[in-house]
Amino acid sequence: MPLELDAIVDVFGLEPAAGPPEVPRTGRVGGTDVTAVHIGMGPAAAREATARVLDDSASGHSPVHHVMVVGVCGGLDPDIPVGAMVNPTEVVEYSSGAAYPHTPPGDAPVAGRLVTTEGVTLDDGESLRLAAEGFLGVDMETSGVAEVCQARGYAWSAYRCISDRHVDGLLDPRIVALVEPDGSPYIDGVARLLAEEPDLAANLDQLAADATRAARLAAEAALAACRVLDAGGGPASR
After folding, report:
1. Which residue from 53, 85, 188, 218 has the highest number of Cβ atoms inside 10 Å of its Cβ?
2. Calpha distance 100→152 (Å, rounded)
């Protein structure tokens, strides 16, 4: 989402380039060049964006040594609070079951699994089933990034922080429907919904605050890992 990109730009100290989120944001961490690009929502968008970043035939292409996917996720385990980082042992694509081992740089402990879905699900029963299978969080992009990186031999890692949980009841289908394909809110739709049901304002405010905080925590975790890579640590990279 744009708020995730904003958090990365701020935490990494990248150049806040003018233009839409699709315009790459660049900067440096130590001796390492960093480029942040906006993915959009869903595994297909993630695969397309990652392939574009890794396309060494593109004009002006710079070598890529490590790919990070950074942002928020939904919480599946009722015992893990909003604001907790998910550092999974593996990422699984929900539709195919394809699994991608996660070996991030640094020494933060890995635990549990992260599942990537095509869309947002508000099915409490399915969420509890996934939690029982060891999934701590759900997102819509990480398996797409992992798939492309693994196929092309590039190192990758994920930094996801829980921004909402199905057990808290803040989300409902009307709110989910107000999210644009790039992750930004549909402003006119939000205004109409609040005019019809002003009591939803508290839910929306809480969701926005939690997502903003989670996006920053995820960006801070990614920055710490980037510093490890810049110092020569972490898993082998291309």
Report:
1. 218
2. 13
Residue numbers of the domain that contains 185: 2-230
Instruction: Dump the DSSP string for the chain.
Output: -HHHHHHHHHHHT----SS-TTS-EEEEETTEEEEE----SSHHHHHHHHHHHH-TTSTT------EEEEEEEEE--TTSPTT-EE--SEEEETTT--EEE---SSSPPP-SEEEE-SS----HHHHHHHHHTTEEEEESSHHHHHHHHHHHT--EEEEEEEEEEGGG----HHHHTTB-TTS-B-HHHHHHHHHH-GGGHHHHHHHHHHHHHHHHHHHHHHHHHHHHHHTT-SS---
Number of domains in the chain: 1
Distance of CA 83 to the CA centre of its chain: 14
**Is residue 235 in some structural domain?**
no
Q: What is the CATH number of the domain that holds 100?
A: 3.40.50.1580
Do the beta carbons of residue 77 and residue 207 sit within 8 Å?
no
* Each residue's pLDDT tens digit, 125-170: 899 999 999 999 999 999 999 999 999 999 999 999 999 998 898 8
Residue position matching structure tokens 């992260």? 114
Does residue 19 register a pLDDT over 60? yes
Q: How far is CA 2 from CA 9, 80, 180, in A?
A: 10, 25, 11
Verdict on whether the full-model pTM lies above 0.85: yes
Task: Tell how strand 135-139 and strand 113-116 pair up.
Answer: parallel
